[in-house]
Amino acid sequence: MTQSWASLGIDLHLEPAGPGLRKGLTDALRDAVRSGRLAPGTRLPSSRTLAADLGIARNTVADAYADLVAEGHLTARQGSGTRVAERAAPVPAAPHRKRPVRVPGRAGPAHDLTAGTPDLSAFPRTAWLKAARRALTAAPNDAFGYGDPRGRPELRAAVADYLARVRGVVADPDRIVVCAGVAHGLGLLTEVLSRRSGRSGRATVAVETYGLGFHREWLEAAGVRTAPLPFDADGTDPAALDAEQAVLLTPTHQFPMGGTLSPARRAAVVDWARRTGGLVLEDDYDGEFRHDRPPVGALQGLAPDRVAHLGTASKALAPGLRLGWLVLPPGLVDEVLAAKGYADTCGAPDQLTLAEFLTSGAYDRQVRLMRLRYRRRRDELVATLARRAPSVRVGGIAAGLHAVLLLPPGTESDVLRAAAWHGLGVQGLSWFRHPAADGAAGAPDGLVIGYGRPPDHAWQSALEALCRCLP
To answer: What pLDDT, in 10s, does the model give residues 414-441?
Structure first.
């Protein structure tokens, strides 16, 4: 019976050339070894398999292998087959030196208190694996095909139920688009705003005086102008909103200052959006993590037709999942899908697993567990600083995974230098301030401390390093 080439074992791409099959095959193998394409220790196909693949006689392959064994390029041992000899490692032939590529996370501070990342060691691996097993067992076959660009219907339905129950969001699964995190979602919305502005000029998005630099950079890289709103003791003031196409806010827990947008100001934002047709972009990055206050509902619940709600699993689970969602006004879905390229950019297995994690209650359990852990850390931070750095005021701690340490005037730069000396990763408050915001001369000095970031075993040493840096 003739055996198909597909069942004969290891594949090997070779293109014998030149006079004579044996010499051409030997030269091709030798070049593959010398160039490093076949690494030391690589097992080669049997002579019968390679002969069948190349359509030549088995003896020709056996002779070529024997020649290269004699030269020391290959080794042949009974029971282990023919392999590339260990001493045949290629010699680097790069004509010039390239600057090494920096890999994020490969090297960093000894103690990391930068904000924006949860305790990654707390990722619920066992519960996630159980959810994945259940989800994949129950998944229909079409889940592994080219999916709906909005995302898997199971995840959109689960997110809609969860957001309605926990965040007060008016969520129709048909108006939810799954994305690879808030940054991806913001990029899609930015693309929509740019397309809408067209030839009429650059779109303008109002942003908060204090916020994430990458938000501004993402908007401006897409050709969108950012205009900072005034910031006072009550937080972001929307009274200055005028002809902007959109406004980007963190109303539930202002990042990084930590306040909550007051009911009057929330109403003012909604009034502006309805009066002008503007779009509100609500970044609800850590709405589940409240410590000392009752839950504050999402702004989207006040105006589902004018607010695009951005959410993510990055804080409750881990940013490495790259799973987030947009809850969109009815007229915005098609435009976002066009910006997305009508493709589902998130893997179906992870979407199905997160859907199972949400519907089974595992997500709620993880949030409650981490909320308690983060609150204990926050309380320890506040108590330690009151004892060892009484000149430092701690703010923005009613919710979330970070705190703002307000420093004596003029000390922020000195504290950052001391932190670098002690191997402590922290961010100065000035780093989060919009460069075009008014009142820079009177801006407070401070640090933004991500107390949720370190694993439990590193928390005490990070806290001690912080105390050594403070005035």
So the answer is: 999 999 999 999 999 999 999 999 887 7
